[in-house]
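Hey team,

Filing this mostly as a record. A colleague (T.K.) asked me to run one chain through the structure pipeline before their review meeting, and I want the input and output archived in the tracker in case anyone asks later how it was produced. No errors, nothing strange. Just documentation.

Input sequence:
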Amino acid sequence: MRKIGKKLLIGFSGPSGSGKTTMVNDYGKFLRGHRFDVAVVKEVARDVFVKWKIRYGFQNIPEIRRSDRATEFQLEVLKEQIRREEREISRHDIVLTDRTIYDNLFFALFWHDNDYEKLEEYMEYFKEVTLKRYLGMAKDYDLIFFCEPLKRADVDDGFRTPDLPYRKVQEFVISYLIPAEIPVVTLKDMPLDDRRWVVNLGFVGLLNDDPWVKEFRRSTQRLKDFYMQKVWRIAKPTK
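Output structure:
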């Protein structure tokens, strides 16, 4: 097994039908073939849905989103996503995730029901998690590959949809939900081999601390230093 001397959490984000699952599985297989210690966090919503189908009798994701439990569902998916990311990064050098917590945030906001107490619970938990990651108290994404929607996507299984206008809305909103301090590489609608080449460039950049990665980290550190000074001024006891 090839050791890289660091932990890398790499997310694949983007709208439905953008090839995230294909890319995650393809690149995970590629890295294993080159003897890297890698794990894949598959799309968590699918596993949580199976539990909800047994627990509550829901037949598909759209049915959940039309119900008064939509926010509760996204909160359960979010917690499970974070649990799996933290578990796998504690066991492996490299973790690839099919969707990120920012994709989850989009669906929680876009499809939220009228249970505003549950939505507030969701947002408080999300803010707690992202603050810990931002301050280095938990592992954050080292890089996110943002997949643009594939025009040829024609699968409608509740998780993916051929509705291009809706997928363009997802693309626009999710891209703005990802924090600026996380490096993002866009994967255009292009053949798999070309996407794999772009992903490999990003991965090699992380391994070698290429200049663009270092600049992101310097900017992030400046933001963290500023934030911690501000927190300290607020929290510092007055005499």
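Quick notes for T.K.: The radius of gyration is 19 Å. The first helix runs from residue 20 to 33.
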